[in-house]
C-alpha cells in the first residue's frame, strides 16, 4: 500500500493514509504500516500509548506542584473505577473527571504514606460517596480498607494485585494489573531512579530487594507507572529499568552507597503532609485545604 505526502503541519510531515482515509504524521503512518496487522485498532491504541483490553480504561493525571502522577483505571462495562495516588489539591478535578466519564469510583488507593503532598483519598471518598480509601496495613495510616501483600483489588472484570515493596517507606506497595501488563510502582521505582531512603523508615537494602523480587521479576514488557517524575517522562518498562536504571543496575552494596549519599533537599511539604496523611488526608489539614473542602469535610 502506498502513502502520499500531504504537507507539513506544526513542523510535522503529514501523509495521506488510504486504509483509514485520514492524514497522519509520518511517525503514525509508519507505526500503522510497520507495526500493526489491523491499522484502525492499533491507531486507537497508539493514541492512548498503551495496549490494554478494550474494556479497560486508563488515564494518567499530573500535579504540577509535587510532580505527582495519579492514575484512573476503570472497567468500561461495569463502570467501576480505581484512582491511584490522588492529590488533595486536585481532588475536585479528579472527582469531576470521574463524574463526567460516568464512572463509579470504588477505591481511592495510596501506594504509600506520601511525604511530599497530602493524599486526596480522604476528600475523594467524601466527594464521591460509596467509594473507599485504601492504604497498606504496614503504613500504619488510617483508611477505610487496609491491604497487604497478595491481596487483590477488583473493579468490574479487572484485578489489581497488591505487592509489598518496602524500602522507600515501610508501607510501600506496588499495584499490578497482570492482564494489562502494567504496574503502579509508587515511589519504589521511579523512571531511571527510585524513592529516597533517608526518612520514613527508609531502608536501601529493603528497597533493592523489593525492586528485584517484586518488580524486576515481572515480564520485561510490563509498563511501569511511578508516583512521580521530575523530568517530564510518562512511563517506563521493566526492560528499560533493568538495563538502564543508574542506581538499580548496580550491586546491592553499590546501591546502598549511592542511596546513602544522595544528599537530597528535605521535601517542601513534608511537615504538613505526614500528619495529614496519617489520617487519610481528612484531618490536620492546612487552613487553605480546610477552607477549600469545608462543605465536604464538615462533621
Ligand atoms: N523536591 C520535592 C521532593 C523530591 C523528592 O524527594 N522526591 C521523593 C519522592 S516524594 S517522597 C524521592 O524519593 N525522590 C528520589 C530522588 O532521587 O529524587 C519536594 O520538595 O517535594
Ligand atoms: Fe514518597
UniProtKB/TrEMBL annotation:
Catalytic activities: S-sulfanylglutathione + O2 + H2O = sulfite + glutathione + 2 H(+)
Report the principal subcellular site: mitochondrion
According to the UniProt entry, its GO molecular function terms are: metal ion binding; sulfur dioxygenase activity
* Localisation per UniProt entry: Mitochondrion
SUPFAM superfamilies membership? Metallo-hydrolase/oxidoreductase (SSF56281)
Matching entries from Pfam families are given as: Lactamase_B
Output this protein's name.
Persulfide dioxygenase ETHE1, mitochondrial
